[in-house]
Design brief:
Number of strands: 24
Helix content: 25-40%
Largest sheet: 8 strands, antiparallel
Distance between the termini: 44 Å
Length: 616
C-alpha cells in the first residue's frame, strides 16, 4: 500500500543518464506525497493499524481492529517512554509474542534521550532500515539539484561506531548510526557513486576512537583532491576532527611522506585498509605541512581540500552553538543540514539545502510514519511544562493534538509519532515551529528538545537531572559546613571537546576552607550522577570534556537578578536560570569567578543497561 521510492543503482557502470533518472523519480515522488499529504497519512495509519491489529498493546486499549483515524485518536492514549517501558522490558528480556508489533523486533536502537539515567530502547523491525535508506535517497536527489556532479568525487565524512550491548533476551541494543554502519547494506552501497567516501569501512568500525579518527583523517588527506563534500553527523564531531588535525598533522604528514602508518595504529584490519590508499607522497606532505604550519587555521577545510563544495553537518538545535567555529574552519562554504531523523523514526529532509543555518526547515515525508502535533504554549518565553501525564491531562492532550495538514504557521508543537515498529502516539520530545509549506506539506524549524538545558554532543541533560546531580554532589561539602546557595550552568563549546560548566555560590559557615580536591570530587560526583549517554561521551567516546565547577563571589546571583530585571524581567516572577545562554549573563558570572575546578578522572561507564550488567 505504501509507495516505494526508487532505489539507487549499485552498479559501478551506472551512467549519468541513470543517475539523472533516479533523481528525477525521487523528486517526482516528493512532489506527489507533499501534494497528497492527508491522503498519504490516512493510508499510512491504516496500514500500521491493520498490520498490528492483533498486537497486545492495541488489544489492551480495545481498538478492536479499527483502522480509521477518528477511532484511533479517541481510544489510543498519547504516551511517553515510561508508559511503554514495561512492554519494552518484556521484549528485551526475550518475550517474542506480538506485544507492540506483529513483525519480529530485529534489534533496539538506543536513543540519546534517557529514562532513569539509561538510554531509551526503541524497537525496530527490519523493514524500517529500508525507510531510512529511502529517506537518504531522497535527500541525495535534493542536494544534487543544488550541488551538481557530486557523484564525480568523494565525501570525507568522519563516521564512528559506539559500543553495543545485548539485552537479556539476546537482541542487539545500539545507537542508530552504529546499526547503520554495521549493516551489510552500508558496505554494499559503497558502490553507489553518492556513497563513495574516503574512509574505508574498517576505519569506521574501529571502536578505538583515536585509531578511528587518525586513520579516517589520514585517508581523507591522501585523497584531498577527490573530496567534494566533507562532514560528520553532528557539528561537534566535525569540529573535533579539525582540532584533531591541529594536534596531529605532523604525525600524519610523516605517514604521507614515507608511505607508512604510525605505530599507534595497531588494529590489523585498519592498517591493511589504510595501506591500500596510502602511498609515499612527499609533495602532498609538504603541502599539508605548509598549510598547517601557518599561524591561522581559518579556512583550513578549503585550503587542504580545495574542491569541497559544502560541509554536511547538523547545525540545528543545540548544534547551532558550533556554527561560528564551523564557519571559521570552512571559510565561506555552505553549512548543510540535510535530514531530520531519530532513533524512533525517520522524519524528513531539508528541501533547500544551501539555505543559511538559521533558516533550515525540514519537510516531513508523510510515508515515514503517522505524525501528530501537540501545541506548545510559552510563558515568559519558556515552554510551559506539559508533563505530568495524568489521565485527565492525557485526555486533554488527545483533544489538542492536530494532524500534519492542520498545523499553523508560526505555531510551535511537540512531535507525536506512530511508527511501523510499534510506537503509537509516542511523544518524541522535539519542539518544532511551522516555517512554511512545500505544496501541502508543512515545513518545520527544529527549535529544541523538550526540557533539555545542557548538551555538548549527543548528550541531553534536563533541569531535574542536573538538580539531582548537584544535590548528590554537595554532600562532599558537609564536613566543612559549606552549602551551595545558588547555581547556574552552561555548555562551554569554546573548548574542544566542549564541557559542562557550573557556577556555584557558596555559604561557608565552618572555619576550615574547602580544599580544591573536594571541589574536584564534587565535579566527579556530578558526572557520576548524570545519564549513561553523558558518561559514555566522557569515558568512551571522548566527545565531552571534564566537567568544571567555577566558584563565584558572594552576591553574584543577586547581580545576575539585577541584570535580568534591568532587561525587563519581572521581579515577582524572576527565578534563577539553571542554564545561562546569553553572552552578557555568562560574562557577568565569569567576571566574578574566584576559583575553578575540574573533574580529574572519567566517570564510570559500561555498555548496556545497569540491570543487564547486574544479571551477568
Amino acid at each position: 500500500m505504501e509507495k516505494t521510492i526508487p532505489g539507487r543503482e549499485d552498479n559501478k557502470k551506472s551512467t549519468d543518464c541513470s543517475i539523472a533518472e533516479n533523481n528525477k523519480k525521487a523528486l517526482q515522488f516528493i512532489e506527489e506525497v507533499t501534494t497528497n499529504v492527508d491522503e498519504v497519512q490516512k493510508r499510512v495509519l491504516a496500514e500500521i493499524l491493520s498490520r498490528n491489529a492483533n498486537v497486545e498493546y492495541l488489544q489492551r486499549h480495545n481498538l478492536n481492529g479499527h483502522t480509521d483515524r477518528e477511532t484511533f485518536k479517541k481510544i489510543i492514549p498519547v504516551i511517553t517512554y515510561e508508559d511503554i517501558q514495561p512492554d519494552i522490558n518484556r521484549i528485551a528480556d526475550g518475550d517474542k509474542s506480538p506485544i507492540l508489533c506483529s513483525q519480529p523486533i530485529s534489534e533496539f536502537l538506543t536513543s540519546s534521550g534517557t529514562s532513569g539515567g539509561e538510554r531509551k530502547l526503541m524497537p525496530i523491525i527490519e523493514e524500517d532500515f529500508g525507510r531510512r535508506s529511502q529517506l537518504y535517497s531522497l535527500m541525495i536527489s535534493v542536494v544534487s539539484q543544488s550541488v551538481p556532479d557530486l557523484e564525480k568525487g568523494k565525501g570525507m565524512y568522519f563516521m564512528f561506531v559506539k559500543s553495543e550491548a545485548k539485552t537479556p533476551g539476546g537482541l542487539l541494543a545500539r545507537p542508530v548510526l552504529t546499526s547503520i554502519f554495521k549493516r551489510p547494506h552500508f558496505h554494499n552501497n559503497r558502490l553507489d557513486p553518492y556513497s563513495n567516501h574516503t574512509s574505508p569501512t574498517e576505519t569506521i568500525l574501529c571502536l578505538d576512537s583515536y585509531q578511528s579518527m587518525y586513520s579516517q583523517m589520514l585517508c581523507g588527506l591522501c585523497q584531498n583532491k577527490e573530496v567534494l563534500r566533507v562532514g560528520a553527523v553532528f557539528a561537534s564531531a566535525f569540529i573535533r576532527a579539525m582540532r584533531f588535525l591541529e594536534e596531529h598533522w605532523s604525525l600524519l604528514c610523516n605517514d604521507i611522506r614515507t608511505g607508512t602508518i604510525n605505530a599507534q595504529i595497531t588494529d590489523p584490519s585498519v592498517r591493511e585498509a589504510v595501506m591500500k590508499i596510502l602511498k609515499p607522497d612527499p609533495e602532498l606532505a609538504d603541502f599539508i605541512e605548509a598549510e598547517c604550519s601557518k599561524s591561522s587555521w581559518q579556512g583550513i577545510v578549503t585550503r587542504l581540500w580545495p574542491n569541497t563544495k559544502y560541509v554536511d553537518v547538523v547545525v540545528t538545535g543545540t548544534m547551532s552553538q558550533y556554527i561560528s567555529t564551523l564557519e571559521y574552519y570552512s571559510s565561506s562554504l555552505p553549512l548543510v543540514s540535510t535530514t531530520y531523523a531519530s532513533s524512533e523514526c525517520s522524519f524528513g529532509i531539508n528541501l533547500n539545502p544551501l539555505c543559511k543555518p538559521s533558516e533550515v526547515s525540514y519537510t516531513l515525508i508523510p510515508t515515514m510514519g503517522y505524525f501528530e502535533f501537540l501545541p506548545i504554549h510559552r510563558i515568559n518565553n519558556e515552554v510551559k511544562d506539559s508533563i505530568p501525564m495524568s489521565e485527565s491531562q492525557n485526555e486533554k492532550e488527545q483533544q489538542q493534538l492536530v494532524d500534519l495538514v492542520d498545523v499553523k504557521i508560526g505555531q510551535e508543537y511537540e512531535l507525536v509519532v506512530t511508527t511501523y515498529s510499534g510506537l503509537y502516539r509516542y511523544r518524541v520530545g522535539d519542539v518544532l515551529r511551522v516555517a512554511g509549506y512545500k505544496n501541502n506539506a508543512p515545513q518545520f524549524n527544529f527549535v529544541c528538545r523538550e526540557n533539555v538545558i545542557l548538551s555538548i554532543d549527543s548528550d541531553k541533560t534536563d533541569e531535574v537531572e542536573l538538580q539531582n546531580a548537584v544535590k548528590h554532589a554537595v554532600s562532599n561539602l558537609m564536613p566543612f559546613d559549606a552549602h551551595v546557595t545558588e547555581y547556574a550552568s552552561y555548555a562551554d563549546t569554546t573548548t574542544i571537546p566542549g564541557h559542562y560548566v557550573l557556577f556555584w555560590e557558596l555559604r561557608v559557615n565552618g572555619s576550615t576552607p574547602v580544599p580544591p580536591s573536594v571541589f574536584e570530587n564534587c565535579c566527579l560526583s556530578i558526572e557520576e550522577s548524570l545519564n549513561s549517554v553523558y558518561r559514555q561521551g566522557r569515558a568512551s567516546d571522548k566527545s565531552i570534556g571534564p566537567l568544571e565547577i567555577r566558584i563565584v563571589e558572594i552576591g553574584t546571583f543577586d547581580k545576575l537578578m539585577d541584570y535580568c530585571i534591568s532587561l525587563g524581567a519581572s521581579i515577582n516572577q524572576y527565578k534563577t536560570p539553571r542554564c545561562v545562554k546569553l553572552t552578557p549573563l555568562i560574562e557577568l558570572l565569569n567576571s566574578r569567578v574566584v576559583s575553578s575546578h575540574f573533574s580529574q578522572t572519567c566517570p564510570n561507564w559500561i555498555p548496556g543497561h545497569k540491570q543487564w550488567n547486574n544479571m551477568n
